[in-house]
Amino acid sequence: QMSKWEGMLRKLVQKDAKSADRAVTKLLELAGNGEPCAPGLRVLTIEEARNKLIRVGAVEALDRERKRRTFAKQAALASAAKVAAAAASAVEPLAAAAGA
């Protein structure tokens, strides 16, 4: 069953970039959540999922996914830093008023 599934994955990856990106995102999501890659198949680790994707020719889609996740993580960190700075600037006048 796994080889049949890999064949279907290979066809998805070879179809076009958008299809490859969706397949990569979905497979990594399933692996990260500890869910099987398809009904009746076993759960893959993240590393196993990446290896399968490389084997079926999804290297470029994996690179795009890695860049997307890195960008999303950086954006989340920047947003958290802005919230922390805003919270600190809101507390300063309160602290000054309490001390006066």
Q: What are the main properties of this structure?
A:
mainly alpha; elongated; 100 residues
Overview of this protein structure:
With 100 residues, the chain is mostly helical. The chain is 82% helix and 0% strand. The protein has helices at 2-15, 17-33, 46-55, 59-99. The chain is elongated and about 70 Å long. The N and C termini lie far apart (74 Å).
Q: How many individual β-strands?
A: 0
Quick check: average pLDDT? 88
Shape: elongated
Major sheet characteristics: none
The sequence of SSEs as H and E is HHHH
Radius of gyration: 21 Å
**What is the count of DSSP helices, taking H or I runs of 4+ residues?**
4
Strand fraction band? Answer: under 5%
User: What is the share of helical residues?
Assistant: over 70%
Low-confidence stretches: none
What's the N-to-C terminus distance? 74 Å
Structural class label:
mainly alpha
Topology:
Elements (H helix, E strand, L loop, with lengths): L1 H14 L1 H17 L12 H10 L3 H41 L1
Helix pairs in contact: 1-2, 2-3, 2-4
In short:
This protein has 100 residues and is mostly helical. It has four helices and no strands. It has helices at residues 2-15, 17-33, 46-55, 59-99.
